Amino acid sequence: MSEQVFDPVFNVAGKTVVLTGGCGLIGRAIVEALHQRGAKLVIADVEAADPEAFAASFGDSCIGVPTDVADANSVAQLLSKTLEHFGQVDVLINNHHAKPKGFLEGQAENFPEELWDHVLDVNLKGTFLTCRDFGSQMLKQGAGSVINMASTYGVVSSNPALYEDNQMGNPVAYSASKGGVIMLTQYLGCYWASRGVRVNCITPHGVWNHHEEAFENRFSAMSPMKRMMKAEEIVGSVLYLASDASSYSTGSNVLVEGGWTAW
Ligand SMILES: NC(=O)c1ccc[n+]([C@@H]2O[C@H](COP(=O)([O-])OP(=O)(O)OC[C@H]3O[C@@H](n4cnc5c(N)ncnc54)[C@H](O)[C@@H]3O)[C@@H](O)[C@H]2O)c1
């Protein structure tokens, strides 16, 4: 009988991974998976999410750092705390996104300017700031992998029919910010390609989170796979991009969306 083989190409053990939005739905699934595989983790999230308390449940290999990614000083502090604690950074995962009050209510034709500013500040500027500071550190090291969480709504438009009989929605600012995240990824992926720093993104879609039945049914009917995604189904793409398995990938967008953009 042949022995089971552990393929080191997907190995993340011992790597220092900084994860923004680490206390959220997808963030928690990523933390769990990377911790189980021996990564050292820096969980960055807003103070209200209490990343320190969340990190404490994973022991010494994990720290939590309250961070506002839209604030350049806060991002600089996140980098210095990461280096102070772990000495280097191998992987940055930009997984944060903003859902300010009233986020789902405005229609494009009357979407409030302050909500637009907030969403773009966190989703797009915040991703730029972390890429800039952590990318700069990775360039000094001569190696690193940046993973930006995009969305199908940065690739294709949302279909208003999905939201006709339910309370869900997709605001114009979200789509615009995620389109920006994908182009930022392509730009930096090419810009840093010859200096050892890879930048890629992941495009998830429709992660199940106790949604109302009307939305789940309508989503499933419109999806090639006829179901929503489970949060843990993001893990394979994260392991791929965080490890040597993706050593020849940069500026790419890994679609984890059940075929949503394929028809
Ligand atoms: N859930 C989905 O169906 C879905 C689909 C496509 C893409 N995505 C993307 O995946 C990522 C994670 O989504 P999720 O569903 O886990 O979202 P979530 O709302 O559960 O988590 C987002 C996290 O970001 C944090 N955050 C908000 N503002 C921040 C700031 N200024 N600084 C630092 N952290 C901040 C929040 O506190 C929260 O913990 C997001 O980028 C989202 O756009 C999610």
UniProtKB/TrEMBL annotation:
It comes from the Bacteria. Gene3D superfamilies: NAD(P)-binding Rossmann-like Domain. InterPro entries: NAD(P)-bd_dom_sf, SDR_fam. GO terms for molecular function: oxidoreductase activity, acting on the CH-OH group of donors, NAD or NADP as acceptor. It holds the Pfam family adh_short_C2. Belongs to the short-chain dehydrogenases/reductases (SDR) family. This is NAD(P)-dependent dehydrogenase (Short-subunit alcohol dehydrogenase family).
